[in-house]
Structures are given as structure tokens and as C-alpha cells.
Amino acid sequence: MEAAKLIALILSVTRVSESARILGAIPTPSYSHQVLFQPLWRELSLRGHQVTVLTTNPINDPTLTNLTEIDLSSSFKILDDKLLEIINSSQNVLKVMQLTIKTFHDVNDFQLQHPEVRSLIDDEDQHFDLLIVEYILSPMFYFSKRFRCPYIGLLPLDSSNINYRSFGHPAHPTLYPDMLMGIHGETSLLERVQLILFELFMVCIAPMVRGWEQEMAWNHFRDTTPVETIRAEISLLFVNSDPVLHYNRPLLPSVISIGGTLARIPTKPLEKNVREFLDGASQGFVYFSLGSNVKSKDIPARSMDVILATFRRLPYKVLWKYELSDLPNLPTNVFISQWVSQMEVLGKCSTP
């Protein structure tokens, strides 16, 4: 009798769980796009799911036995080769958009030809229960058709209006300015005109972009599903925006704001010389970094002179993430380092 009661008690508190086979695809060759979602892949694998991720920045943690990573870091070269041309065209928004979109389509095309990716596509015995994919360009979405599974979109920042509208989300161009325009709050008449013109531009180039994507869908997946259809079939969209920091806008139930919830990124201690430099910043310090794609070493000489002269006049110390070991005419209050643990720097407090 007592044994029966014990069994009944155990059954009453037992929960049934199932593991899933999950395919992740973050094709953008940018550390900031990749590192944000690394805690997601780590946690899913630790919870028993079999996770395969297409990434340009693998975690490379051998203890994560349920995590398989396909290293696409070779696609960085495509972006690096085009980045300076894109930056030098910054005064022409239309040209920048066209160059950027074409470059990232070239990146997607290159990645889908990767031998391990081709093996994944061609293996008839391969299957996945869910696709989690960066919701920017469409070619990677066709994995959901290949494996007959639903997909969830991820964005490392807020979504553009054209993305929102592709699955029926309200996106009025002047009520909710496109994040790509950098216009916030109350808008002037001129700003509204700019927003409308930008919207018309996006509408005009959409057929060209969708044409590239449709061609890649056929070349790599032999799939003729219209791009518009597959973009609309998204099940959920996780957007890295925080309602507290962004203007109010209605969101569909399928759009989830995840701003600040995935920032559990393992950090490395600051190097001794960097730590000592910051410890000596009695009046505080400035951290200057252009990220991982734009290189400080490529700043034109004239602009570099302006930056150095500005830093020299500051009463603060300046920590600069700079790719080379030496910088001529470096002010005494500036310290350069080829790599900096940014999370540690931003979390450091300087006390007088």
C-alpha cells in the first residue's frame, strides 16, 4: 500500500519533456549579430535539444555536446572587401542601400555553397523540428521548406518596416519611422517627407531584391515558393528592442521584444595594462570602438588627425580599440588595444 502511494506521488510530480532537433542560421558576418544569440544556442543545447547552428563566430565549447556548429567565418572576406566602398558612399543613401543589400546577398550565396551546408541540404535522412533564423534576407528561410518545419525569426536590433509588413504587421512610414532612418520622436514636415521618400525607395528596390532571393532559392534548394509567401509564414519574431527605450507602437502577438534578456555573454578579465590604465582614470574615461567590421586603422588620415586632436583636448583618459600595435602621434591620455573585453569595460566603474 505504501509503495503504491509512493508511486502515485512520483507520477503526480513527474513532467514529460521532449527534446527537439533545432537548426539555427545567423548568416550576417558580424560579431555583434552573432554574440547576442550565443547564450540562446548554449541554453537550448544544455536543456537537451540537439542544436545545429550556421554561424560566422562559433562558440567552440567542447563541453556543449548537443551543439554542432558549421563555421562560416570565411564569408567575412566578402564583407571586408566591400565595406570601404559602402562607407565611402555614405553620402548617397540610395547607393549605400543597394551596395549593402547586394553584398549580403553575395554573402548568403557563398555560405549556401559551403560544403557542410550543402551536405545538410542534400542529406535526405536529415531532419529538423524547428528553424531559428536571422530575419533579414530570405534565402536561409528556405531551410524551413527543405525540412518541412516552422521557423522563428531573430533580429539583433529593431526591425525595418519592410520586414514588419512582410508578415502583416502594421508599419506606417511616418507614425512608426523606419529604424534604418534614425528618426525618432516627434517628426518635422521635412523628416516626414524623407520618411515617405525612403519608403518609396524601399518599395522600388523590393522587386530587384526579391528577384535575387528567388534565384538563390532555386539554385540552392530547387524551391519555387515565392519569397513573399515564405516570409509571411514566420511563426514568431524575436526583436532585440526594449519598449522602455523605443517609441510606442502596436505589436502583433507574434512579435516578442527581447531587449536585454540575452546579455549573459561570458567575459574575459581585462588585461593587466588595460586595467591599470582605467584604474588611473580619476576623472572617468572614454571608450572608443568602431566595432569589429569597421576598422579604426582604415580611418582616412585627415579624419584621424581630427580624432587625435579632439582626444588630446579631453580631460579624460581614452581607451581605443585599435587594430594595430602602434599609432603615430598618439596623445598621452589615449591607450590603444587590439582587443578589449567590451562587457568588462562597460561594466567598470571609475572612482575618484
Give an overview in words:
Keywords: Glycosyltransferase, Signal, Transferase. Belongs to the UDP-glycosyltransferase family. InterPro entries: UDP-glycosyltransferase, UDP_glucos_trans. GO terms for molecular function: UDP-glycosyltransferase activity. With 352 residues, the chain is an alpha/beta fold. It folds into two domains: 237 residues, Rossmann fold; 75 residues, Glycogen Phosphorylase B (Rossmann fold), CATH 3.40.50.2000. The protein has 13 helices and ten strands. A seven-stranded parallel sheet has the order 3-2-1-4-5-6-7, covered by helices on one side. Strand 8, helix 12 and strand 9 form a beta-alpha-beta unit. The longest helix has 33 residues. The radius of gyration is 24 Å and the shape is globular.
